[in-house]
């Protein structure tokens, strides 16, 4: 059986490792308990988390035991990594709700039955810590001088780093130690922006327990221009269908740059690498077939095969003058709200196709808004009931590929 370390490396996941040969040997020799952490600062995971989730699934399929650590405790401090300002403080109730939402999304990739994986919340051990005892047992192993050289702190020093945030590295390191003691967890994995925190945790275990512990970081999901993927005009590409519809999720991947297709197939799907390379090598119009496979596989993983099929059918129908528009995102408005007619710019704002009236007017002037296949040229255009079809629906298109339905009831 192929070593999972080699699988992750071949598919392009691994960025840094504390002890590469030791980790590879360990993963090939025994079932390893490992963890990745997620601070529940929002009520949904997004595409930025998906790469790590897929990596955990690869690990579990190879016989290793994942721990999904929900940071109910650390979220009350806020991770300064990758931030130029302090994170918003959340209540315990908000954090608990977000953590429950995360669990539903993880269950789409990770099996938790029969102890094959664990989901824990660090609020269970962090919130009841005695500060003096914690500093005496844990804090004495940390050098302030060394901590200040970490990237997650260096970039914040000019803007101002609070002592609250300065404690974050200690909290995350203690998480690793706690999980080592309770579950025998030997490996922490995470995004490359977590490198400083991960190596601090591994070092703490070695100091306190005199035992080996390891860290592994993954590449960040970026496009061919080096920009983070998963950003849309309306915000993050969330995994929650209430935030981003399965159709919009499908369309995001269907429309990515040709140069990013092979990398995304390798990192985000479970297709064999021979198939990934075959699809990635397609040229010209044929690359669209690879994009369809990518979009379908990802939508199936996150939203289920039925929703993936509906999204694919609807996307194809739009480009082939078909009639199945059931998965196109829509906004419903009542007769009373509509009031007989409504300005096109107000409709664009209402449907979320634009974030402001000024943006809507600019798009219209640039020729980027269509009603069915008719371009809108007038920012003062009023839409009336006669503009809706016999199903009281109006299809709006922004640019070449973004569709939205307005339904009148």
List the keywords.
15% strand; 19 helices; Tyrosyl-Transfer RNA Synthetase; alpha/beta; Structural Genomics Hypothetical 15.5 Kd Protein In mrcA-pckA Intergenic Region, Chain A; 5-stranded mixed beta sheet; Rossmann fold; single chain; 6-stranded mixed beta sheet
- How confident is the prediction overall: mean pLDDT? 85
Which class of secondary structure composition applies to the elements? alpha/beta
Question: By CATH's scheme, which homologous superfamily of the largest domain applies?
Answer: HUPs
The biggest sheet amounts to: 6 strands, mixed
Report the radius of gyration as a whole number of Å.
24 Å
User: Between the first and last Cα atoms, what is the distance in angstroms?
Assistant: 58 Å
What is the 3D shape? globular
The main sheet orders its strands as 1-6-5-2-3-4
* Poorly predicted residue ranges: 79-87
The tally of beta strands, per DSSP, is 15
What is the CATH architecture annotation of the largest domain? Answer: 3-Layer(aba) Sandwich
Briefly note the CATH topology name of the largest domain.
Rossmann fold
The proportion of strand residues reads 15-25%
Number of helices: 19
Note the quaternary state here.
single chain
Tally of domains: 3
* Highest-level CATH class of the largest domain: Alpha Beta
Could you describe the 3D structure shown?
The protein has 409 residues and is an alpha/beta fold. The protein is 44% helix and 15% strand. It folds into 3 domains: 4-218, HUPs (Rossmann fold), CATH 3.40.50.620; 231-319, Tyrosyl-Transfer RNA Synthetase, CATH 1.10.240; 330-408, Structural Genomics Hypothetical 15.5 Kd Protein In mrcA-pckA Intergenic Region, Chain A, CATH 3.10.290.10. The protein has helices at 4-11, 20-29, 47-61, 92-106, 123-126, 131-137, 144-147, 151-157, 163-166, 168-183, 195-209, 246-254, 261-268, 273-280, 287-303, 305-319, 335-338, 344-350, 357-365, and strands at residues 14-17, 33-38, 65-70, 118-121, 187-191, 214-218, 231-232, 235-236, 330-333, 341-343, 369-371, 374-375, 382-384, 393-398, 402-408. Strands 1-6-5-2-3-4 form a 6-stranded mixed β-sheet, with helices on both faces. Strands 9-15-14-11-12 form a 5-stranded mixed β-sheet. Helix 12 packs antiparallel against helix 15 (287-303). It is globular, with a radius of gyration of 24 Å.
